[in-house]
Amino acid sequence: MGELILALVPVALGVVLSPLAIMALVAVLLSRNARMNGITYLVGWFLGLGGLMALCLWLFPLLAVHELGEPPLWVPIVRVLLGLFLIGSAVWVYRKGRAHIAQMAAASSPREVVAASPQLPGWLHSVESFRPGRTLLLGLGLFVLNPVDASCAILAALDISLSDVDRSSGLWVAVVFVVIGTLPIALPVLYVVVRGADAQPLLDRVRTWIAGNTHVLNAALLLVIGALQLEKGIAALL
């Protein structure tokens, strides 16, 4: 079980340092109804991560990924494809991230956050008027529809399904993975809920640091995760 947890650390960090989710969270926490929208965004993110993990943990046993101790041929092929995708994503995140650091650090409203982050959906310009229901869907969609975050959840579920731990232990590992993947959203939201308007100065400093460093950290993590998956996939095919 310990080896499984260690193997999932880089994959979990790939979710934790998701720049797209953090940029959207900044916009939500700058909206008029920051407390309630922050909570519903957190719930949506949690449902996206937890739901996708649960779906994969249910689906992979049906596909016999651990049958007779030897996973089917499609498993290493999926690892190779996801590894190549994540390595390509690392290059894209690093190159694109630097182009918007200054704008993101200076943003003071949801509209400016979106302008500094063109990869965000255009309808985020109206996040100031979002009601809790739409903000929940935003959190859910930004996880499920983000190929990088979704790939990390799929890889985590695949590693858990292929491990030698029993079903109960595997479920506990999955729960820990979901909790860790939710922390980068939960902590700022809880801080805003508790502190209200007094949270703004610290959020500004955290946002500035994130804007200047997240793209580098995330690119490095995606590169490591992609390389590990590529190595596992190629080794299984040979």
Automatic annotation (TrEMBL):
Annotated signal sequence range: none
Chain segments annotated as transmembrane: 6-30, 42-61, 73-94, 136-158, 170-194, 206-228
Origin: domain of life: Bacteria
Alphabetical UniProt keywords: Membrane, Transmembrane, Transmembrane helix
Xref: InterPro entries: Gap/Sap
Name recorded for this polypeptide: Sap, sulfolipid-1-addressing protein
Source organism of this protein record: Microbacterium maritypicum MF109
